[in-house]
Amino acid sequence: SAEHPPQAPRISVVGTGYLGATHAAAMAEMGFEVIGVDNDPAKAQALSEGRVPFFEPGLPELIRKHVKSGRLRFTTDIAEATAFSDVHFICVGTPQQRGSNAANLSYVEEATMQVVRNLTHDGLIVGKSTVPVGTGMRLRSIVAENVPAGIDAELIWNPEFLREGKAVDDTLTPDRIVVGGTSARSEALMREVYAKPIATGTPVIVCDLPTAELVKVSANAFLATKISFINAIAEVCEAAGADVTVLADALGHDVRIGRQFLNAGLGFGGGCLPKDIRALIYRSSELGATKAASLLQQVDEINMSQRQRVIDMAIEACGGSVLNRRIGVLGAAFKPLTDDVRDSPALNVAAALHLRGAQVVIYDPEANETAQRMFPTLTYAESVEEAATGADALLVLTEWKEFSAAKPEEIRSLVARPVVIDARNCLDAAAWRAAGWWFTGLGASPAP
Ligand code: NAD
Fold first, then answer.
1. Where are any strands of DSSP class E within 110-191?
2. Which of 1, 72, 105, 205 could form a disulfide with 66 if both were Cys (CB 3.0 to 4.6 A apart)?
């Protein structure tokens, strides 16, 4: 391409889920020729046709742009990818193991092995998945044991910090680039691959392999701690008659603290934070580093207790039992701007109320379909109005803008009882009370 000399490195991205599909599209946007590999044929096929099998703003446009430009294609064939490219990003999942806090590393191990065994020329393998510290070192022995004779393969780590919902921007203009375990040659190659963001000022942190792995999980652990911290303070606020939202705004003006991740409420979920802190609890215990383990154990417990708290509030709001009560649930995604329902607090609460005999009707602007796949027995509505109609209580469990923009007077005319629980502190409490609602948030003083 015009932006790169003809010998520009060609790139493969192994695993094209939320992380990999975004990374592949961003690399094409930066001017490289990219091939994405996924062992799920339906996913590879959909992406090849420019369809993204999940909701991520801006991503379908970017993928279509570069499938069309010819710089981006997708396959299920790892050998095709290794023959084509020089830099291989490993972007497969590292979910929580069943019945343990530990991360399941089988996908990362398998993908690395497949890349290495299929190398036809020298290659750089770049781990991007979030892994427990020490994984890279283990993978290096897998590389050494499987690399074909006469071929040189190096493995480094380059963790990813993108946020779902803002994944495209985060990938094109990251806050920082961390590369761990590099040689002079692979560091130069990484600087070439990330030349565009580096040129616009993105800092590069070059470090050893374990530091690179640990930066990522520490970032997530810190964010999780911030959320559980404010939820702990919210409990004090409630007991003392203070308002946690005003408090968080005041705290947030201190640049050492910052306002983000200080929203009290139902707590964090999703495919990353919960499993990443649990993997860190497990790994730090394994290493005998008990302080991190006990701190994060508390963070996890506080977070999970928020879900129970909201379930209890709903039961109380329905007079002690939700049996045969109709409950309108606004939100299913674990946060706004995504359709991801992995470990979603909203769906957890909805399912728990359903188990207690409530008729739960859920509406989410993007996640109805993914939620329905996980909980087919719950009822799904097409709008806020439909979810609210006939409700004995209305629960706001994900802070979509559409919900905070809803008109309390209009919704009031649809429900059976004007009871609303704002588990994300995202509604204008005064406006809802003025419209005749019995309103409760989390960590706020009771109605005046
Ligand atoms: P995901 O489940 O959406 O995607 C993983 C993909 O890998 C799937 O499409 C799966 O089919 C594919 N796959 C598995 N084994 C494969 C193999 N051997 N060959 C080819 N493809 C294979 O997961 P995700 O959310 O994209 O997360 C991937 C990693 O990135 C995880 O370690 C996660 O912690 C990390 N991460 C995720 C985010 C995020 O916001 N989702 C952000 C930063 C880091």
1. 123-127, 153-157, 177-180
2. 72
How are the residues of the chain apportioned to helix, strand and coil, as percentages rounded to the nearest 5?
45, 15, 40
- Percent of the chain residues past pLDDT 70, beyond the cut: 98
Ligand 1 centroid to Cα of residue 218, in Å, is: 19
Domains and CATH numbers, the chain: 11-207 (3.40.50.720), 221-441 (3.40.50.720)
If you average pLDDT over every residue of the chain, what do you get? 96
Q: Note the ipTM here.
A: 0.99
Q: Residue 448: its pLDDT value, please?
A: 56
- Return the pLDDT at 447: 61
Cα separation of 428 and 426, whole Å? 7
Kindly give the distance from the C-alpha atom of residue 352 to the centroid of ligand 1, in angstroms, as a whole number.
28
Q: Is 272 annotated as catalytic?
A: yes
- Supply the pTM of this predicted model: 0.95
Q: Which atom of ligand 1 is nearest to the CA of 111?
A: 18
Residue whose CA lies nearest to ligand 1 atom number 42 = 162
Pick the closest to residue 101 from 293, 246, 241 (CA basis).
Answer: 293
For a pocket test of ligand 1, which of 77, 92, 373 has the largest count of ligand atoms closer than 8 A to its C-beta? Answer: 92
SS3 category, 370: helix
